[in-house]
């Protein structure tokens, strides 16, 4: 079968690798001159940054993909464990470091806040009970294959009527620990006050399966996938802009690009579902829903070393609800945001000159594209970080940049917001009615955003298409 894949993000590449290995003739079409999509690499002088995902979880997902398509992951990529997973700092000046080593984490939490260790253990235990049902949804969707159906008892524990905020309040007495649990809403781009409690498992996987970093940066995963694609006989065409998908008699027939038409018996798209409908198929817009968050990122090259810096660090604001209101109610740049700082050189030196640091700094932002004053937001963020005197390089990537580079409306990272009953687990479908042979992968469709989930979604699509 001739299969065209639109977009060389991790989801598109994973699907292409699997299908080429199954004997299909696979062509990947990418409009940019490098593969990777949001999992991009930026280099400026002696500094190097990952400009998208900065953490790899569920490594067994990637090991399974590589093992199934010819050779172990370890032949392509070295994964380094990140410890501690994250340092959290609060507006009152207190801080705590959480480890994937449970005894170490519990000791740190009890020292920080009496009873917090017991609460964290209870949180992890609840998520461990939820995980089997969650994993069934993440690995596919109904009808499930034999043996993959979620256990009814585990599914009942998801409590679809409970929000992530409800979940945090039940499991944590210290308001600061609740903030840590609620922060996992950002992994799906949603509001913890409105998204289902089941998404608490996002934090569980970091601590149950570990936090990982590919040596050389997250973009090394993309490079490993492109090498595997070549090894299994797939083709990657860079600098090829897809203009539309041709559908005749209810079935896809070809992909029309800036370089001509590519005949196809099946098409897989790794772009936002809204873009597929509106731009590639010219269909009427789907029912309007709230969009997930975008992000304002600063790529900083800093002179000198920061005492006590960790690979991942989160700084919480004094009023988290005001941040959520700015994002989801007022839809404006956040005045006092939660600040995420990633300094991967702690684990994997080489992204900056010796003695210096490369930071990836991210704050959540509404998906409003060019409508925000991102220059002013950048200046305010630099003031909060107190690093102006150390700046060697500073690159800004705003929602407007994300929208321009990826086509995602407003720069939304995860498509529709995961609000409502089970919305976080049952994401928009991977098919579009009236276009047989068309399949969707990526963060805007099932099972959701994040590198392991888009890979699971890609493998589910490949299984549905089957061998040549």
TrEMBL record:
Its cofactor is FAD. The keyword Signal does not apply. SUPFAM superfamilies: FAD/NAD(P)-binding domain. It catalyses: all-trans-4,4'-diaponeurosporene + 2 AH2 + 2 O2 = 4,4'-diaponeurosporenal + 2 A + 3 H2O. Pathway: Carotenoid biosynthesis; staphyloxanthin biosynthesis; staphyloxanthin from farnesyl diphosphate: step 3/5. The keyword Oxidoreductase applies. Residues 11-277 form the Amine oxidase domain. GO terms for biological process: carotenoid biosynthetic process. Keywords: Carotenoid biosynthesis, Oxidoreductase. GO terms for molecular function: oxidoreductase activity. Pfam families: Amino_oxidase. PANTHER family: 4,4'-DIAPONEUROSPORENE OXYGENASE, PHYTOENE DESATURASE. Belongs to the carotenoid/retinoid oxidoreductase family. CrtP subfamily. This is 4,4'-diaponeurosporene oxygenase.
